[in-house]
């Protein structure tokens, strides 16, 4: 019997917006759309660090005949008006801008990162470090920072972050000696990639990563193939974490007819176990526009991570739990169940796993290691 324990540890009502970095420039009322998808790591003190994505949105984005998006500039945050007649606001997370030669969108919120320190067992908040919040600092981040992941490599903390802008939709890298003070190293991938995360340790002297390049068009597999076309997990390697070579072989692909057939993407940084590299990833089942997100797992060969030793995509490791969000059900805005797993640390007989629940709050799961036998 596997005894997984789950609870929400941090949510939108736990964010003090008077201490938001946006307050320096924007006087209009805002609210927390979600405090979710947190990176997770263990600090030198033994405490845990959640790096929480805070999506801060305008309370009244529509004024007159325009809808407004928040954007960072070197001189402060500004509000950009878009004519209502030229947008589609069907999705609460963004609006589509009509009329261009390519699909374009703007966000209804801007995301920044909030360090939340937890007790070693992940059951209690020790401190919320507003003074160390990470906000946009460059033009390639002017629409915000999303979905961080933290890996410890060679004794240093490495954090990948999805940086959003009209320039590009790429991955930035931050590094830290202590998990507290972070340095922006710059862009490491400049193509659209939502889930780049680094293995916790080198393979053959190289840093390895899971990536998930996105595009508008995917080639179809033959009708007899076991694989489903669309966004999948690929691999890349680097001598220094800054310069990357894609792996020639594919990584984890969605199987045709599975509950992940819509797409798969990286979840937690792979960690080395006796059986190989353990990675938790998300698989998406087609349903309505967003889909149903669940967490699955796979084992990769310790010396050749393109070799998949085991792939568990039938029975989910973690699923969305309506009981967890029942106390804040009035804040839910997604039409389908979503859990998005983003961090893992070793806790003896179990792993402590961090996820975003319903794009709304931070969930902690204590998963016994026996679950992976």
Molecular structure report:
This protein is mostly beta strands. It has a single domain (about 5-370), classed as Tachylectin-2, Chain A (5 Propeller). It has one helix and 27 strands. The strands form seven sheets. Strands 20, 21, 22, 23 and 24 form a five-stranded antiparallel sheet that branches. A four-stranded antiparallel sheet has the order 1-27-26-25, with no helix packed on it. One of its GO terms (molecular function) is hydrolase activity, acting on glycosyl bonds. This is Glycosidase. Keywords: Glycosidase, Glycosyltransferase, Hydrolase, Transferase. Belongs to the glycosyl hydrolase 130 family.
Give a quick summary of the entry.
GO terms for molecular function: hydrolase activity, acting on glycosyl bonds. With 373 residues, the protein is mainly beta. The protein has one helix spanning 322-325, and strands spanning 5-10, 30-42, 48-58, 62-63, 66-73, 76-83, 87-88, 94-97, 104-107, 109-118, 125-128, 144-153, 156-164, 169-176, 183-189, 197-198, 207-211, 234-238, 245-246, 263-266, 271-273, 276-285, 292-300, 308-312, 339-346, 350-357, 361-368.
């Amino acid at each position: 019997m596997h005894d997984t324990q789950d609870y929400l540890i941090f949510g939108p009502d736990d964010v003090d917006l008077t201490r938001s970095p946006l307050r320096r420039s924007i006087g209009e009322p805002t609210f927390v759309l979600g405090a979710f998808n947190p990176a997770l790591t263990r600090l030198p003190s033994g405490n845990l660090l959640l790096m929480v994505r805070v999506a801060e949105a305008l309370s009244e984005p529509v004024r007159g005949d325009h809808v407004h998006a928040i954007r960072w500039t070197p001189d402060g945050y500004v509000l950009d008006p878009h004519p209502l007649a030229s947008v589609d606001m069907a999705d609460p997370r963004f609006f589509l801008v009509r009329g261009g030669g390519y699909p374009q969108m703007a966000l209804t919120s801007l995301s920044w990162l909030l360090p939340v320190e937890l007790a070693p067992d992940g059951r209690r908040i020790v401190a919320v470090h507003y003074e160390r919040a990470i906000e946009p600092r460059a033009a390639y981040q002017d629409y915000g920072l999303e979905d961080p992941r933290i890996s410890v490599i060679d004794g240093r903390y490495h954090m990948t972050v999805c940086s959003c802008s009209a320039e590009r939709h790429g991955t930035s890298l931050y590094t830290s000696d202590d998990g507290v003070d972070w340095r922006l190293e710059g862009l490491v991938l400049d193509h659209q990639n939502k889930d780049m995360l680094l293995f916790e340790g080198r393979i053959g002297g190289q840093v390895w990563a899971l990536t998930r390049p996105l595009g508008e068009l995917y080639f179809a597999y033959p009708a007899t193939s076991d694989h489903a076309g669309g966004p999948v997990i690929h691999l890349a390697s680097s001598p220094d974490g800054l310069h990357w070579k894609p792996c020639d072989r594919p990584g984890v692909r969605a199987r045709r007819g599975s509950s992940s057939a819509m797409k798969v993407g990286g979840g937690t940084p792979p960690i080395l176990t006796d059986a190989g590299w353990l990675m938790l990833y998300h698989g998406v089942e087609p349903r309505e526009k967003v889909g149903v997100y669940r967490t699955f797992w796979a084992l990769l060969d310790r010396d050749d991570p393109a070799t998949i030793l085991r792939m568990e995509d039938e029975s989910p490791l973690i699923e969305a739990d309506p009981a967890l969000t029942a106390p804040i059900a009035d804040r839910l805005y997604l039409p389908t169940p979503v859990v998005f797993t983003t961090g893992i640390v070793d806790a003896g007989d179990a792993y402590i796993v961090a996820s975003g629940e319903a794009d709304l709050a931070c969930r902690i799961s204590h998963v016994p290691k026996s679950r992976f036998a």
